[in-house]
Amino acid sequence: MAVLPGADPPPLCNSCGCSTNSTYFPTAALSQAAYGSALASGPACGQCFNLTLTETLLADPPWVLNEEQRRNASIVVKITDKCPAPRGEKPGNGWCGATGSQANRAGFSLHFDLSAPSPSVPLSFFPVNSSYGYSDYGGWAVEFEQVSCDNWAGWSNQTVRQLHALLVP
């Protein structure tokens, strides 16, 4: 689809529906097995989770956050998409490829895929340990808890809330 100069861009679409505003708030894609559908909106669409970073997955040696660091490393995200299982690969090979009986490559059955850096999840959200000499650790283990979406930063946006009402009974 071509967009004419001066015209509004088309709305952003994902597995849970379309919204031009939801990407300005913390959203995540959930691994396909947990999402609930490979082809369409799954029951996880529109659900909200509080994610707390606990440790890096790829840093060597591993870095486990202390309690103070973890207090500043939580974010409430809304599930707006699925993180698809890798096509043509064995289950468990990718971040999103967990199945009911096979964990993903990090050993977990769930994967929350955040778009970062973004307007809603800046790089400054992720803690930095200067002793490593770099700040992008590639992946984090998280503790997660399903929470009410009125805890989500996008809840105060009327357009986004109307979309939520359509997705979550």
Helix-strand topology string: EEEHEHEEEH
Radius of gyration: 17 Å
Which class do the helix and strand fractions yield? alpha+beta
CATH architecture level-2 label: Beta Barrel
* Measured distance between first and last alpha carbons: 32 Å
Give the CATH level 1 class.
Answer: Mainly Beta
Shape: globular
Low-pLDDT stretches are 1-12
Put simply, the count of helices is 3
Describe this structure in words.
Pfam families: EXPB1_D1 (PF22514). By secondary structure, the chain is α+β, with helices and mostly antiparallel strands. It has a single domain, classed as RlpA-like domain (Barwin-like endoglucanases). It contains 3 helices and 7 strands, in the order E-E-E-H-E-H-E-E-E-H. The chain has helices at 32-35, 67-71, 158-167, and strands at residues 13-14, 17-18, 27-31, 48-56, 74-83, 112-114, 140-147. The protein is globular and about 45 Å long. The relative contact order is 0.25. Residues 1-12 have low confidence and may be disordered.
Q: Which features would summarize this protein structure in a list?
A:
about 170 residues, 3 helices, single chain, alpha+beta, RlpA-like_sf, Barwin-like endoglucanases, five-stranded mixed β-sheet, globular
